[in-house]
Specification:
The protein is α+β, with helices and mostly antiparallel strands and about 350 residues long. The protein is built from 8 helices and 15 strands.
């Protein structure tokens, strides 16, 4: 409802024998009220969006999720592999709880895996703890320590759960109720573990009573062994008696693309390749556990959406021009891009 519409309706209710022209006493008295009412209508539209899960956000989405017993996942801390060597370059143990720094972040030793190999946790929550690699500096003196190295990401740190992710979990629970260890139940259990972006559940995959849970991380890649084990342990505490559950990371299938493109004179092929690569990566992420086919026609559409590209020819995916079909336990990841000017 606009200001003009509200003001007209208010003036229409005033007898015509009175002066209602712009600038009159009546007009000037009603106009401010019409402005306020128009603003309230705008706010009401916003509030109406906040009522429904598909359009809600922030605190209001949290309130709706709480109705189904869901809470937004807080930011989590990255768990990393730490490698420790003495002055003779032999693996050595360090005290649990000892702290190390790299760049602007600190890491604390949590758990021993084997001599010289430990689980470290970043003290700063979020994705920052996933990024750095290299030599660690001990914050407290550790006798005979020669080299300390920050290595693999065992369980990635994540930012606070986004509205999109929370909304997806809400709709999953509301539209596919989890009961008695059905497929939806296993997806929910898997996604309760930090480091899991999604799960695909394959029932009776190896005979009656067997269930396979296939995992990908938030970047739509196969999860680490550390996360896989955490999911297996969590499901073991939840699953029905008698179920034989196998938890595995998704098998990554590299998607290698070759194509010739027609470009205007003077366009940098490397810049075009970067834009195209990013767009294809997003397309492949959107397929994960939702579409079993990587389609050349979709890749072709992406090519034509890259502004400098005029046309293309000889598009091939993994050396073929037909659809690439993925198995239930596979996820497509971007491999090489061969982009040549024709």
């Amino acid at each position: 409802m606009t200001f003009e519409t509200i003001l007209k309706q208010m003036l229409d209710k005033v007898p015509n024998i009175l002066d209602k022209r712009e600038g009159s006493v009546i007009y000037n008295a009603l106009a401010p009220a019409a402005v306020e009412l128009a603003q309230k209508y705008i706010e009401l539209d916003t509030f109406l969006d906040l009522v429904f899960v598909t359009t809600s956000s922030g605190e209001y989405l949290d309130r709706r999720a709480a109705e189904l017993g869901l809470t937004r996942h807080p930011a989590t801390k990255a768990k990393r592999l730490g490698l420790f060597f003495d002055s003779d370059n032999n693996p050595m143990d360090v005290p649990l709880g000892s702290r190390f720094s790299l760049e602007l972040l600190n890491y604390v030793v949590l758990e021993k895996l084997e001599t010289g190999r430990f689980v470290l946790e970043c003290e700063t929550p979020g994705e920052a703890g996933n990024k750095d690699f290299g030599n660690l500096i001990p914050i407290e003196t550790i006798p005979d320590l020669g080299v300390a190295e920050l290595a693999d990401v065992l369980s990635p740190g994540e930012e606070e759960e986004s509205d999109e992710s929370l909304r997806e979990r809400y709709l999953l629970k509301a539209q596919a109720p989890a009961t008695s260890g059905n497929q939806a139940h296993y997806v929910i259990w898997a996604r309760e573990v930090p480091g899991v972006g999604d799960a695909n559940v394959i029932p009776v995959w190896n005979g009656p009573g067997t269930v396979k849970v296939v995992l990908i991380d938030p970047d739509k890649r196969a999860v680490s062994e550390f996360v896989r084990q955490a999911v297996e342990d969590h499901i073991e505490t939840q699953r029905p008696i008698g179920a034989d559950v196998t938890v595995v990371p998704a098998t990554e299938v590299e998607i290698n693309i070759s194509v010739g493109v027609e470009l205007p004179m003077g366009v940098d092929i490397d810049e075009v390749r970067t834009v195209f690569r990013d767009a294809v990566a997003e397309y492949l992420k959107g397929l994960a556990f939702k579409d079993k086919f990587v389609r050349p026609v979709r890749i072709g559409n992406i090519l034509l959406d890259v502004a400098p590209i005029i046309d293309y020819e000889n598009l091939a995916i993994n050396g073929q021009t037909s659809n690439i079909e993925l198995a239930d336990d596979e996820v497509a990841v971007l491999g090489t891009i061969q982009l040549e000017v024709i």
